[in-house]
Amino acid sequence: MKIKANCKINLGLDVLRKRPDGYHDLSTVMIPVKGLFDVVEVEPIEGSECEFHSLGLVIDCDDEHNICVKAHKLMQSRFATGGVRITLDKRVPFGAGLGGGSADGTAVIMAINELFKLGLTEEELIDIAAELGSDTAFFVRNTPQLCEGRGEVMTPIEIPQLTGRWIVLVKPDEGVSTREAYAGVIPAVPAVSLTENLKAPISEWQQSVKNDFERSVFAAHPAIGHIKQVLLDSGALYAAMSGSGSTVFGIFENREQAERLSHLTPYIFEM
């Protein structure tokens, strides 16, 4: 069974407060980017082991700690499912704020549910995926969602202003760890909610739709902030860092404007 595990971007990201469990309460809108994806193939095999193979981009962890393998172990512990062979064709840059790893882990959960005929409901799949990480639950629905709590509390949302627009993703060579991103954030509840700000025309988002990680990340990594300015100077209606970085995206009016940035990145897609 093959699944296209697409990535996501964050439209706005408010870090509201630190929780007693050490995590943070967030408010962010996640949007799937269907044009950029990993291919995850899951096949049942004899026994109970997980055979993991990867190709494409070189992954920066050993197989045992890959989220695909962790997803299999989680499903096996819950439902006593059998062994699988997982082949990951890695195309989404990692350490990029695009949720590529989260999408891969969720793809394995969804595939095992189908292959072993578990019949899990959407809510059950969301609960299981949330155990793997903060972004994983989003990929069960894989549609625009207001994500709160750690990211696992989701409410469907419509952003009609994005229809027909084009997105440019620029992944710089340097990365930003989640630990580093959170270390520089001062949690605060904004006076106007993210959902209210997103009701405005895209032309007004730059002044009101913020990513709380940008201030400290740009201070430590000026090249990432420079990319955002390049996108805006090139005509982006809106530009921001996705998640905890380091990818920066720009939303453009049309394909022609977006493709003027093809010298910077191959990641240009219709939304």
Q: What is this structure's SSE topology?
A:
Layout: E1 2-18, E2 24-45, E3 50-56, H1 67-79, E4 83-90, H2 100-115, H3 122-130, H4 138-141, E5 145-149, E6 153-156, E7 166-170, H5 178-183, H6 194-197, H7 202-208, H8 214-220, H9 222-233, E8 238-241, E9 248-252, H10 255-259, E10 267-270
Parallel strand pairs: 3-4
Antiparallel strand pairs: 1-2, 2-4, 2-5, 5-6, 7-9, 7-10, 8-9
Helix pairs in contact: 1-2, 8-9
Explain what the structure shows.
With 271 residues, this protein is an alpha+beta fold. Helix content is 31%, strand content 30%. It has 10 helices and 10 strands. Strands 1, 2, 3, 4, 5 and 6 form a 6-stranded mixed beta sheet that branches. The chain has a 4-stranded antiparallel beta sheet with strand order 8-9-7-10. Strand 8 and strand 9 form a beta hairpin. The longest helix is centred in the middle third of the chain and has 16 residues. The radius of gyration is 18 Å and the shape is globular.
Q: Structural class per helix/strand content?
A: alpha+beta
Number of H/I helices: 10
Give the DSSP E fraction (strand runs of 2 or more residues): 25-35%
> Secondary-structure element sequence?
EEEHEHHHEEEHHHHHEEHE
Number of DSSP strand runs: 10
**Shape designation:** globular
Compute the average pLDDT.
Answer: 95
Low-confidence stretches: none
Assembly annotation: single chain
Rg, Cα atoms, Å: 18 Å
Helix content: 25-40%
The largest sheet is: 6 strands, mixed
